[in-house]
Amino acid sequence: MNSVGSECTDMKRDYDQCFNKWFSEKFLKGDRANEACTPLFKKYQSCVKKAMKEKEINIEDVERTILGTNSEPQKPPSAKPSSEESTSTSGSS
């Protein structure tokens, strides 16, 4: 998957490779320290923030919590069949 800014895609790939290596070789064996990938992440993060600013994407909108709050779009209530429909579908066979 490409990054939000095409100029960030190589940095994303480098960070992803570092993270995947750390996850499989360290994290899954109990080593939770991830300092090796921090510089790559910070460089990538900086690039993404710059690309978002250039594309006028507001970082606050991206970081806002929506799921599980009143801001989450709600599904409309399901329509209940009228009494006439329910009797005709459950009628005698």
Automatic annotation (TrEMBL):
Keywords: Disulfide bond. It catalyses: a 1,2-diacyl-sn-glycero-3-phosphate(in) = a 1,2-diacyl-sn-glycero-3-phosphate(out). GO terms for molecular function: phosphatidic acid transfer activity. One of its GO terms (cellular component) is cytosol. It holds the Pfam family UPF0203. Residues 62-93 are annotated as: Disordered. The keyword Disulfide bond applies. Residues 80-93 have a biased composition (Low complexity). PROSITE patterns: CHCH. One of its GO terms (biological process) is phospholipid translocation. Belongs to the TRIAP1/MDM35 family. This is TRIAP1 protein. It comes from Branchiostoma lanceolatum (Common lancelet). The gene is TRIAP1.
